[in-house]
Amino acid sequence: MTASLVDRLGAVGVAIIALTDNAEEAERLRKIGVASALTGVASTELSDRISDAVAQLAGSVRPAIRSTPADTGVALVCETVEPQPDPEGQGTGRLIAVWGPAGSPGRTTVAVNIAGELAADGSDVLLVDADTYGASVAAVLGLLDESAGLAQACRLADQGQLDADALRRVAATVATASGTFRVLTGITRADRWTELRAAALAIVLERARQIADVVVVDTGFCLEADEELSFDTMAPRRNAATLRPLELADTVYAVGAADPVGVPRMVRALAELEAAVPQASPIVVMNKVRSSSVGRAPERQLRDAWERYGPAFGLKSFLPHDPSAADAALLAGSLLLEAAPESVLRHAIRALVCAPAQRKRKSSVFSSTPRRRSNG
Ligand SMILES: Nc1ncnc2c1ncn2[C@@H]1O[C@H](COP(=O)(O)OP(=O)(O)OP(=O)(O)O)[C@@H](O)[C@H]1O
Ligand SMILES: [Mg+2]
């Protein structure tokens, strides 16, 4: 009995009540939203429990595993009442999702550096690589991590065994000269996407909010809902790992490439985002802004082009094309704040989430102090 199975059964109208005399098992079941009773329970009490389970299915399940459009089941659960509180307590951490269309617009660069800047400012940060098409956070941070921390966390969540300590254990720690943050690394092969199911991922994100001030999620690009193609309501959803964080996020950054291919692609992608996750109100960021791809005064050119397309969301921010800073960070397997602390790109990304940085001279501590990394 896993969180995913409970979620899928709930989606097709099956309420679950477990019989067990094992207190540990009852606790585990509670964590995945299943009520239990002792095996020798009196029949009247059992019938009450069954009624409760049915009533709860019709009304609410725990918010962390409630079906939403990332899954098919939502259409089948029509009545809603107040959800029950999460027994572990609600997390208060802010969830930031970084998303953007296909074409490598810079989602990972933005996500990783947002996480680093917030950590440098003293926030407790957990970075999550939920890109099921091309996970790259571990490589970008120079982590020799093949353990797919997010898949491990999802497995534990699915089994009702993900508490705050377990989540801390499966997250890698990245220590920079200016702050430490945790990372749940992504899946190592795209065909492992089935390991990141919506119900389990929602529990992971809920736990993440409990252990971190800010949770930053690097998502994939694809928002396609595949349920219409599938008659199997038990099947996992290909893009749940992107849709679920977008549904749950407090803030969504939509990152697009500032060139003649990237701009119209971004406009179309935002329309898809609005249809798939109507509650998301993305902050639109144009990345790799340069005059050589859009003409002189590139920000004005981009705004003019944007107006012509007339998308629902305005352009909020421009990140400069800064290949030497981006490459220096890639080469060093580190953050811009370490590899290129004075770069325009570092300061522009920092300005998305932090108060303006104090400019440091070339002899910055960021560039001179080596970084330590460890797991756990
Ligand atoms: N502002 C920038 N200036 C120059 N190069 C950049 C900038 N932003 C990102 N890059 C570079 O562009 C490439 C793609 O960036 P990144 O991996 O962040 O994109 P992505 O959207 O996450 O791509 P993917 O589709 O692989 O997930 C990387 O080589 C990165 O260093
Ligand atoms: Mg990426």
Automatic annotation (TrEMBL):
Domain CobQ/CobB/MinD/ParA nucleotide binding: 96-326
Highest rank taxon of the organism: Bacteria
SUPFAM superfamilies: P-loop containing nucleoside triphosphate hydrolases (SSF52540)
The keyword ATP-binding is annotated on this UniProt entry: yes
Entry keywords, A to Z: ATP-binding, Nucleotide-binding
PANTHER family named among the record's database cross-references: SEPTUM SITE-DETERMINING PROTEIN MIND HOMOLOG, CHLOROPLASTIC, SEPTUM SITE-DETERMINING PROTEIN MIND HOMOLOG, CHLOROPLASTIC-RELATED
Name used for this protein in its record: Mrp family chromosome partitioning ATPase
Species this protein is from: Pseudarthrobacter enclensis
Lineage: Bacteria, Bacillati, Actinomycetota, Actinomycetes, Micrococcales
